[in-house]
Every structure is written in structure tokens, then in C-alpha cells.
């Protein structure tokens, strides 16, 4: 078989074309958002929101309205609940997050179990890249474009908010409004990504690309390019491997993101494990030379 | 008109009284020191001036405006403590100084030529023009402080709040920063410096407020920093910091 056929053959199928479009779009917008999430320290918040939307999605399915509406309501609701539990008790934030999102996730799982046509809804948990309709794809692309546009237009404010919220406040910007904006985009992005990889794995798309880019760059402006590019590349590799190896597509996409992170973690030029070890050895060596007798 | 006018504000955190009918007036074109131990309410005073919290009583005016109006007018700048900054954050020195310009820029904060000039001038003023593209964590303690001063300059702020500007700074940088702040105030800026470090106050400040939940003493550094006053401010501090009403100091001002 011609090597090019490995790339072209899957494209003959409509379902693969749709899967590729959605994967590229979802991984790009998730990767953009992940840059801020990891810098603010909101990785766990991303985890929480992505799981907490499940009951909203199921209820939207039952009511026959777009998934995005249910997800948005429950995503924002989860954030409020977490804030309320944290502020009105002496619990630490991670405990508040843990209690709220697992309860909502469980509520969603229970709802799925009592709703007819279970096969369809279990896709929300693990994604259904290969079973997307044209309407699904349209909805995903529109929402992703909206989320991406907001992130790109407000990128400077969001970075200032992540870096120094007090200064943002002192200059007349509203950190509260910026954090609400970011959380809104987070809920939107979760809707986009959960149809690709499912509720369980969305959080990987929301953390790993930003973490990978952070290890490679010391400038936010570079991270915001690197993260989507690397994330899309890893996702495409994941889709193709899943096609030829006949594995779960969402699972393989996330696995490829993780493998890419591992490679960067080990071999990144400055912050990689290997580079820092070598630099350490060199320093030690230089020190030994200096202190050796007869030198 | 004074730059900052705080009149009789009280702030409580639960049972703890952080500021007790506190008043302070920061004069125009001067460097004013705010001296007190940790827990004496210095940070709470800063937060009240910035409008990060609203006192339960009393008023705060910045250049005659409410804190919210002052923020919108862009007259306020704040320099955080070392611990308040993520030094691994992927921003360069130039990026941070550019953040001072956001208040006057459009919706997407598009960088204009005037912004570039302002940032370059601010960096030159603090002698960091060659460090513009370096990541902030690569700088020394004193250089890090100067980045935030440059940000205030680029912003065009006239009222600066500096939180512990000499923490983690070596002697030489301290002298550089002192000279820089003196020249800024000579140019019209009002600077309020919070510190628990008594060295260098005489060189830096025109006047000093000795602070423990309210003003204990006020005047020129030499007049205020007497053994007697310091004992009043620093003597039974631990009890006061905890809001302990059974402290051993006999002074009513700390009550």
C-alpha cells in the first residue's frame, strides 16, 4: 500500500471527515484556553466544570434543546456552588470542588441510567467522534469559533488577570468580570470538546496542551501559538492511529497528547528533565575541576 | 489637595479589628512611609485605598475621587510584594511594563506607537532598557522591583502604593530604587511605601506614619523613629496582631 493511502483512505468516509474537523477545532480551542487555566492554577476548576456539565447535557437531551444550553447552565451553576461552599465553610477550595463536581457527575450518571436510549447518552461520557451528525459538527464549529474569538480578542486582559489581578483592579479593570468571562468560555469549550472525547477525558484537552507549551516557552504569546499547533498535531495523529489500530478514538487522542507531553517533559531544550540534568552535571563537573588539587 | 485622604475607617475580619477608626493623609509630591509590624493593618489599608475592600465606616478619597473613580482615571498604581508575584509566569519585562498601558488602550488592548514609546521611556528611566525581552524570573531582586516601578511610570500613575519595596533587595539596588522614587516624587508623584524595615527610611521618606491599626505617630522620619515611639509600635506587637485585648502595653493608642 502507498504510504499516502494511510492518510487518504480514512478521508473517503464522511464520518472520518467529520471526526477530523471536530478534533482539530476542539483541540485548538481547548489548547488556547488551557494556557490560562494552567497559569492561574485553575486546572482543577477545568476538571470540575467539565464533569459537572453532564446532568445539564442529559437534561438538554431529554428536553430536546441544544446540549450547549444545558451544559452552560450547569457549568456556571457548578462554579457558583463551588464558590458558595468555599466561602461559607472553612473547607479548602479543592474539597469544595471535589464535593460539587462528583455529586453533579453522579447526578448525570443516574439521569443517564433512567433515560431511555442509553447507548446514545453514554457517548457523552466517552465521546463519540465517529458518530457525529452534520448538525453536531455545525454546532461545535460555531461554539468553538465563538470561544476562540473571545479568547483571542481579550487575550491581553486575560493574561493580565492571570498574572496580576490586583494591578488589573487598580487600573479600573474588573478581575471579577474577567474571571466570569473565562469561566463562561470554559463552559462553552467543554461543550465543544465533550462531543469529541467525552466528559471523562475533556479535562485532558484543557490542561495537557498548555502544560506542554509552558515547558517549551517563556513567552505567553508563543505559548498561545504552540499549544494549539501541538495539540492539533497530537490529535490528528491520535485519530489516524485509532482508525488503523481500531481503538477508541477519544482515548487515543488524549493518549497522544499525554505522550507528546512526556516527550517534551523529557527532551525540552531548557526546562526538560534531560536538559536540566545535563546542566546540573556540567556545573558539578566544573566545580570538581576547580576544587581538584593541582588545579 | 492631598493625594490620599483616609478618614476614620474601620475594617474587621470577623472578630479581628484590622483597622480601628484609622486616618491617614498622604501629601502631594512626597514619599510617605507606612511603618508597622506584620499584622498591623498595612495591607488592609492598601486594600481599602485600592477599593479591594469597603470599610464598614469612614471615607477614602484618592485625589478627591472615590477609589473606583480613581482607578478608572488611571491615577493609582500598586507594586505587589515578592510573594504576590508568580516569577515563572511566561511574560517578559517589556510585557509587564506594557500592562501599565492597558487602561488607556482600546477593547483588545492593541499596542499603538505611543504605547511602545511610553514603555521604552519607562524602561530607560529605571535602567532596564536592555532587559526588555527577558523573562521576569531571570532578573535580580532589585531589578524585579524596578520592573513594577516602570509599569507605574508607563501607566502615568500619580499615586503609587508600594508594598515592601526593599524585601529581597541588596544594598546597592536599594540605593538605586531610593534615588528613583525620590526623582519620581520630585516630578510630582505621591508615593506611599509600606515597610517593616526601618533602615533606609530616612533616605527615602519625607514623612513617616508609624502604624498599628491606626496612626501611632506621624512626622519626619527622625522625629517619628524615636525609641519611645518604636516601643509603642513594635513593643507588644504579637498580641495586637492577633487582636489580643490583654496586651501588656500601656498605651491607649494601640487599643
Descriptive report:
The complex is a heterodimer of chains A (295) and B (255). Chain A contains 15 helices and no strands. Chain A has 295 residues and is mostly helical. Chain A is 83% helix and 0% strand. Chain A has one domain: Orthogonal Bundle (ABC transporter involved in vitamin B12 uptake, BtuC), CATH 1.10.3470.10. Chain B contains 10 helices and 9 strands. Chain B has helices at 42-50, 67-73, 93-99, 113-125, 141-155, 171-186, 201-204, 221-224, 227-234, 237-241; strands spanning 4-13, 16-26, 31-35, 57-62, 76-79, 159-163, 190-195, 207-211, 215-219. In chain B, helix 4 (113-125) crosses helix 5 (141-155). The longest helix of chain B is centred in the C-terminal third of the chain and has 16 residues, at 171-186. Chains A and B meet through helix 9, helix 10 and helix 13 of A and helix 2, strand 5 and helix 3 of B.
Structure keywords:
heterodimer, A: 295 residues, mainly alpha, 15 helices, 83% helix, B: 255 residues, alpha/beta, Rossmann fold, 2 domains, 9 strands, 35% helix, disordered C terminus
Task: Report a brief summary of the structure.
The complex is a heterodimer of chains A (295) and B (255). Chain A is mainly α.
What fraction, in percent, of the residue positions of chain B are helical? 25-40%
CATH class of chain A: Mainly Alpha
Oligomeric composition of the shown chains:
heterodimer
Span between N and C termini of chain A? 64 Å
- What's the average pLDDT of chain B? 87
SSE arrangement of chain B, N to C: EEEHEHEHHHEHEHEEHHH
Which range does the strand content of chain B fall in? 15-25%
In the predicted model, the low-confidence regions of chain A spanning at least 5 consecutive residues are none
Highest CATH level, the class of the largest domain in chain B:
Alpha Beta
Tell me the greatest interface: A-B, 25 and 31 residues
Distance between the termini of chain B: 31 Å
The share of residues in helices of chain A is over 70%
Please give the radius of gyration of chain B in angstroms. Answer: 18 Å
Give the low-pLDDT segments of chain B: 237-255
